[in-house]
Design a protein that fits this description.
Order of helices and strands: HHHHHEHHHHEEHHHEHHEEHHHHEEH
Number of domains: 1
Number of helices: 19
Shape: globular
CATH class: Mainly Alpha
Largest sheet: 2 strands, antiparallel
Distance between the termini: 52 Å
Strand order of the largest sheet: 1-4
Number of strands: 8
CATH topology: Serine Threonine Protein Phosphatase 5, Tetratricopeptide repeat
CATH architecture: Alpha Horseshoe
Length: about 450
Amino acid sequence: MKKNAQIITLLWLLTMLISGCEKFLEEKSDKSLAIPTTLHDLQSLLNNAYDINHIFCSIGEASCDDHFLKDADYNGLFYESDKRQYTWQPDYVSRPLSSAGDEWYNCYRIIYICNSVLQGLEENNLNGQEADYIKGQALVFRAARYLDGVQIWAPVYNESTANTDLGMVLRLDPDMNIPSVRSSVQETYERILKDLTDALPLLPSTIISPTLPTKAAVYGLLARTHLIMGNYADALDNAEKAFEISNDLIDFNGLDSNANYPIPAVNQISKEIVFQTRMFSSNINNFNIARISLSLYNLYDDGDLRKNIYFREVADGEYRFKGTHTGGTALITGITTSELLLIIAECNSRLDNLSEAAKALNKLLIKRWDTNQFIPYSFTNKDVALNTILNERRKELVYRGLRWSDIKRLNRDGYNITLTRMVNGQTITLPPNDLRYAIALPETVIEIGEIEQNPR
């Protein structure tokens, strides 16, 4: 009981150090209060799943083309910043810190905790297997937050401009006296890859707790990172290694499509989840008001079981999402076995391994289609294979926080996807590769921390 009280107090202190007067990333810290000293305390910080595993960014999902709001629901949004976010405005799209929905703060609060754990290990000379395991976890959680954030607040990775494009503020030390300066996109991705690579030998292959990372989680995050960067051979290699360790798939043929949330989950985690992280519950993504875009819904054929497992009809021609992997309304952003198979399929198709691409895709789709109607794919044309796999990726990974990142990387590669919304009779568009794909940082961070804003 005493230990629990100490951890609660420590978490409160960590929070206060980075939230006072909204001067996030600028407050001066008292390290004697902030840094725990024992392995038990350090592990306890990482065991706090609500903080560490949850409240990943929702802004990208809210900005993508998989769903829409009706005018009455848009007009009823409480925060003006949500309305601006939904309509792709160039600035003032972040909620105030007082709302609990400041996603920049949510991101860096967890990075601060990870840095505190890493410094606690170093300054207290904590070594051995348990210390290594804690270090590996902290590195993975920090990398996951930076990967999440760079999809939102930075341009898509582009090899020709990554060294000059503005990336994340790379904080590797909990000392808040260190000035906050934005690194490049290249430096941000290099840090993500380094953290994950350093964590890999420190983590087990078997799951100790579904909320704590394993080798499969690291391989999965490496695969996702390399896919975004366009490093397809590396993405393929890591996805295959992850799937070799964790490969459970749910057969949708055995599910009840009439259930409120048909995909089974134990303790809010389905068996397909390799690395459990969740999205912040924003109003724009709220199932009670968000409708599925018909451009997405119409991609599903009648034999595709996801059509009824993922969606429920709420009005004539209008649908809402129900295909979560948590048994309720919570949305996951973490790695799943289905994502791994889709990475394997996409990378094989890009590398001209068409038979292997079809093999990976069929392994997934046999679990998603009515077995009496599914016809396995075989590919002889690279473009047909890639377009088929990308469509399946969109259909499978709905509400996973991945569509925004996918649009950015596909537009980088010439797919020319234009987003369109109709709001109160006005047509609003977001052209391919627009500067607004790097969403504006909160204005309070810019003003107080003198951090450079994204170009507009």
